[in-house]
Design a protein that fits this description.
heterodimer, A: 282 residues, mainly alpha, MetI-like fold, 2 domains, 68% helix, globular, B: 384 residues, alpha+beta, six-stranded mixed β-sheet, five-stranded antiparallel β-sheet, 10 helices
Chain lengths: 282, 384
């Protein structure tokens, strides 16, 4: 089929490019606004000026100084600890469960997978109250484990789905060769399966990391003291009834976005291939 | 090194399907045994049972005289080459070859030495640090071989290892695999659906159909003396021409359609049972090369209408039609090929200088002494 070749500006301006550009602007503008505003001085944050004048790091200094009323560095460390632990647990348990459900002979695989799918779309708000009562009963409120455990539980189903699908895409003969060569099942998973399932691991890891890093509801409900607050709650509860330090909020938001941005930038190719695995015949 | 013996081995899957029926086969130490048969005949299942990747439902499997039914693949001391090679993509050629030795906790220096030796035998030395993705199909196949030979196993198992290669490379690798196997002298079980591969590589060939062993013999014996119509039609390319015929009283001649071919004393002596078929219908088998075009000499002939001539340089394949009913050996051809075979169609392999042309009626000389005869009902060869 011959298509008419567009000349001049028609080559670049069409419905597709306009729609794409509008979407990108819609998504990127608030992020740009956040970054630019974090460098504005206290006097210019509420003005119409688009760019800071002069550029100032005062908001960053104030937010992360030892004298700050809200210990943001502490919140970030808390978030990092809770998120890294939860992600490690999710990947560890998810790998074994995903491999078991994908490869091992097992009864009731389908009901298990359907249950996992249902759990993964279950609204967290529905379990907050009973979970709060249980955690209070065992004395875990205001701790790290009161977030690590529910985060692991809520993110596991999705990770298991992703990892299982990835394992299914690895030719079975590779594991059989491992068995013939004398590798134990754990050694097979570690030396043969996991290195090939890296994109699946990255995908599950990044989704879990992002979900834990940005989780708000459980963190707000279970950890009320500054010692265990995570960054989303710290950002939401900063300031007083009469003053909100927008400059500092923007600065901390920028810092809090860095881990996610770095992860996605570094592993973006793996994430895309992890999400599309099994979509086309390899 | 060891021999392998299958004694009344059975495989029944949990859904009740029996893939292998009371299978008896013995493979001598150093022998190259090829299992051949159409898709789904159970040959790969058998190989996987020997490897320990499939449970054995019944019967006994011995390797080196030891019953290994319940031993794990590792304990059976076998090495297997898979159809898709199953190379580990994240490891280099050297790491792939040495992985099994690493699992045995062999010293690193010894692993290196053995890997380099194997790589040298297979011509892989310069690729030893490459990843499988950077290799050609033939090189990957050789790495898979290297992974098997470096372990110095008692038995080699190969599951259609050449089927992913293009035709030219397959012919090369066929010779190379045979050379390596003979050099090592290890008992080998080789699965293929390609009868040419089976004939050219195997010391003996076991023809399998629907989980039953049809015949196990040397390639030449299979070709010359097929035990039944299935083996006759499966072995040989182009396939044997099988026609419905009627034997005259006293086995003096056989009628194929409207034509009669006189039989010799040699035929009657070699097959005394033929006498009992006098006046009855049977199946006559004639290999394409036993139907040369007539060049003036006297002797039994068949006349056929030439449909097509394929000139191959060293020979011509003449597709002709007789006014006789063509018999199909069930399962020996792919479904499509069966549909393509017309009523009475046959193939003759003739001299390239023969002036046979499509649309004409050609005379084919019949090598009567090498004709095959089969019982029309059972499909079994009429021999004794």
């Amino acid at each position: 089929m011959r298509t008419k070749r567009r000349m001049g500006w028609h080559r670049y301006v069409n419905l597709m490019t306009v729609a794409t550009t509008l979407t990108v602007i819609f998504v990127v503008l608030p992020i740009l606004w956040m970054i630019v505003s974090s460098f504005k001085g206290p006097g210019s944050i509420n003005t119409d000026a688009v760019l800071p004048h002069p550029w100032s790091a005062a908001n960053y200094e104030a937010a992360f100084s030892a004298q700050s009323q809200d210990p943001f560095y502490r919140y970030i460390l808390n978030s990092l600890l809770v998120t890294v632990c939860s992600t490690a647990l999710v990947l560890g348990i998810g790998t074994l469960a995903g491999y078991g459900l994908g490869r091992m002979p097992m009864r009731g695989k389908l009901p298990i997978m359907v249950s996992l799918l249902m759990i993964s779309v279950f609204p967290a708000i529905a379990v907050i109250a009973p979970l709060f009562l249980i955690l209070r009963e065992i004395g875990w409120l205001n701790s790290y484990q009161d977030l690590i455990l529910p985060y692991t539980a809520f993110n596991l189903p999705f990770a298991i789905w992703i990892l299982r699908n990835y394992f299914l895409g690895i030719p079975k003969e590779m594991e059989e060769t491992g068995r013939i060569d004398g590798a134990s099942p754990l050694r097979t998973v570690w030396s043969i399966v996991l290195p090939q399932a890296k994109p699946g691991l990255f995908t599950a890891g990044i989704f879990t990391f992002t979900a834990c890093w940005t989780e708000f509801l459980m963190s707000l409900s279970f950890n009320t003291t500054n010692t265990y607050k995570t960054i989303p709650v710290g950002l939401a509860t900063v300031g007083s009834l009469y003053a909100t330090p927008f400059g500092q909020i923007f600065a901390v938001s920028c810092v809090a976005s860095v881990p996610i941005a770095v992860l996605v930038l570094v592993f973006r190719k793996s994430v895309v291939s992890g999400l599309t695995s099994g979509a086309v015949k390899g | 090194m060891a021999d392998v013996a299958l004694e009344k081995v059975i495989k029944v899957y949990p859904n009740g399907f029996t893939a292998v029926h009371e299978f008896d086969l013995s493979i001598a130490d150093g022998e190259f045994m090829v299992l051949v048969g159409p898709s789904g005949c159970g040959k790969t299942t058998l190989l996987r049972m020997v490897a320990g990747l499939e449970d054995i439902t019944g019967g006994v499997l011995r390797i080196g005289g030891t019953v290994v039914n319940d031993l794990s693949p590792k304990e059976r001391d076998i090495a297997m080459v898979f159809q898709n090679y199953a190379l580990y993509p994240h490891m280099t050629v050297g790491e792939n070859i040495g992985f099994a030795l690493k699992l045995r906790k062999m010293p690193k220096a010894e692993i290196d030495r053995k890997v380099r030796e194997a790589a040298q035998v297979l011509g892989l030395t310069e690729w030893i640090d490459r990843k499988p993705a950077q290799l050609s199909g033939g090189q990957r196949q050789r790495v898979a071989m290297g992974r098997a030979i470096v372990r110095e196993p008692s038995v080699f198992l190969m599951d259609e290892p050449l089927s992913n290669l293009d035709a030219k490379l397959r012919v090369q690798m066929r010779a190379e695999v045979s050379r390596i196997q003979r050099g090592l002298g290890v008992a080998t079980v080789y699965v293929t659906h390609d009868q040419t591969e089976a004939m050219t590589m195997g010391d003996r060939v076991a023809v399998i159909r629907d989980g039953y062993l049809q015949q196990c013999d040397t390639p030449q014996a299979l070709y010359d003396h097929p035990r039944n119509m299935f083996v006759a039609a499966f072995i040989g390319s182009p396939a044997m021409n099988l026609y419905e015929g009627t034997l005259e009283q006293g086995a003096s001649a056989v009628r194929i359609g409207s034509q009669t071919v006189a039989l010799t004393d040699q035929v009657r002596t070699a097959r005394p049972a033929l006498a009992g078929y006098g006046g009855r219908s049977l199946v006559v088998g004639i290999r394409p090369e036993h139907l040369p075009a007539v060049d003036g000499q006297d002797g039994p002939e068949l006349h056929g209408d030439v449909d097509l001539v394929e000139a191959l340089g060293s020979e011509q394949l003449v597709h002709f039609t007789l006014d006789a009913r063509r018999v199909l050996a069930e399962g020996a051809h792919e479904d499509d090929a069966e549909q393509l075979l017309k009523h009475g169609e046959g193939v003759a392999r003739v001299d390239p200088r023969s002036a046979v042309k499509p649309g004409e009626t050609a005379r084919f000389s019949v090598d009567v002494d090498r004709m095959q005869f089969f019982d029309a009902a059972s499909g079994e060869a009429i021999t004794g």
